[in-house]
Amino acid sequence: MEDLKLHRFEAEIGGIEVPERLNNPFEYAPHPLAVIAAEQVKSYVDAHSEWAGELACGKMLGVLVVSDASGELGFLAAYSGILAGSNNHDYFVPPIYDLLTPNGEFKQGEAQISAINAQIAQLESSDSLRMAKRALQEAEEAKTTAINAYKLTMSEAKANREARRKGGVLSAEEEKALIAESQFQKAELKRIRQRHDATIEEKKAAIARLQSEISALKARRKTMSEALQERIFRLFVVNSGEGERRDLIDVFAAFYQANPTLQASAIPPSGSGECCAPKLLQYAFNHQLKPLCIAEFWWGNSPAKEIRHHGHYYGACLGKCRPILSHMLRGVDIEPQQHEKRVATTDDMILYADSWIVVANKPAGMLTVPGRLHDNSLQTIISQEIGAPLKAVHRLDMSTSGIVILAKSDAVYAALQTDFASRNIEKRYIALLDGMVIEKEGVIDLPLRPDINDRPRQMVDYEHGKRAITRYEVLSHTPDHRTRIAFYPLTGRTHQLRVHASHKSGLGCPIVGDMLYGHANTRLMLHAEAITFTHPVSKENLTFKAPCPF
């Protein structure tokens, strides 16, 4: 029987070489076959005008090119989450577990929690609670009125006592009476406070009695939600390339037990298992289809905080998909990530060295410092070459090339760190942007924070983000509508230049080769070209340059 989920290519693909290994789903340039498959999916989506409004809000779509038992090529398609209120559409692979199944585990649990929500809403809007809160407000207002009135009485009495003392000599008995009056009034003010506070506490207790049922319902709702979430994740059972089936609770627990330095919760985040990549691989494994290349692309408008461009390809998310795919891809021959590839040391990597510092030119694809899972880095390689331990004073992204300062002692490191924090060190980056920046120069001021569910991505967040400022200068434009630009970062936030270039509130033009915020390419076209700083020991003003390699 024909598999309606397996689509054949409409375009001619005879001259395209079939990949020998599945591309790494987290870091890739889409294979030509995946691009052709994606274009076919885009045409299909465009033809469904009834989805246009929903898709305009933004959704991730994905394709997986596969070969069947006879070796014939085809592809599978998927969407993240739910589309048009459904988990099932003829063209796309089904969910790993259908949350929307009528009378299913999720729907039954959701109905029970909804019933509790209705009870809570009813109690919170009840006349009894409203009247009790009003009574408390009136009691607090009565206290304020009574205290203010009595303080006025005390003030008038005090003025009268002072007038009597100034009016003549008072007898001992008269002075004693004035003092007693003052003491009584102070004590009476305290008694007034106590009487009203007792009334207020009675009103608060009445509210607490009414709210105790609400609190109990909320606690019950929380327990039920957690239990439902665990039951649902137990129903998300994923296959591996080796044929092992495990539910998401076990998958996440095993992943973080094996990778404790990643310091994330072993409880799956909400939405785990509903992304494109797990859906595509699950279907392929269940139907004996061999995965050849995978690609995910964004469709619609970019979210306000995240960076997603219509039609651009993106790697699988790390927070939800990394643990799942680490299990599913067991037994599958895949391309390694960049940090798993050994980058050869070059003779001209060291630009300058003395007794206190080393200035090096880091190649693209090399970590600046050792990662949590990988030791290969500029810091370790240069330390080994010069035979002394070094400490990188600042960092460049793995994909970024250019100048890095390394210190030979803690004192020198601390001094240079202070200069960076005080913005006494000037840096110039060269980048090639995918798009035309019209303004010749300007300043970008967009606050950034990490995307906690998809590290290392950063988000623009005006409420919780840290301020990030970049000055830029357009150098030239290319015939293929790209912009060569110089960046001068005034702060040093993670991915600052990449986000400021890509975000719609920044330049709206991602850096060429930016797999996180733009399109994949041969490399990220971002290079730390020059740095100027004061030597921490000699106090000499130094400038170093590393010619841009692109």
SSE layout:
Blueprint: H1 32-46, H2 52-56, E1 59-67, E2 73-79, H3 105-124, H4 127-167, H5 172-235, E3 237-239, E4 245-247, H6 248-258, H7 276-286, E5 290-299, E6 313-314, H8 318-328, E7 350-353, E8 357-362, H9 378-386, E9 391-392, E10 401-407, H10 410-421, E11 426-433, E12 441-445, E13 448-450, E14 458-460, E15 469-477, E16 483-489, H11 496-502, E17 526-534, E18 541-545
Parallel strand pairs: 10-17
Antiparallel strand pairs: 1-2, 1-5, 3-4, 5-6, 7-8, 8-10, 9-10, 11-16, 11-17, 12-15, 13-14, 15-16, 17-18
Question: Can you tell me about this structure?
Answer:
Helix content is 37%, strand content 19%. The mean pLDDT is 92. The protein is built from 11 helices and 18 strands. By secondary structure, the chain is of the alpha+beta class. Strands 7, 8, 9, 10, 11, 12, 15, 16, 17 and 18 form a 10-stranded mixed sheet that branches. A 4-stranded antiparallel sheet has the order 2-1-5-6, with helices on both faces. β15 and β16 form a beta hairpin.
| Content-based structural category | alpha+beta
Binned strand content: 15-25%
Q: What is the helix fraction of residues, given as a range?
A: 25-40%
Low-confidence stretches: none
What's the total count of β strands? 18
N-to-C SSE string, H for helix and E for strand: HHEEHHHEEHHEEHEEHEEHEEEEEEHEE
Mean pLDDT: 92
Q: Please give the largest β-sheet.
A: 10 strands, mixed
Shape: extended
Cα distance, first to last residue?
Answer: 52 Å
- Compute the gyration radius: what is it? 33 Å
Give me the number of helical elements: 11
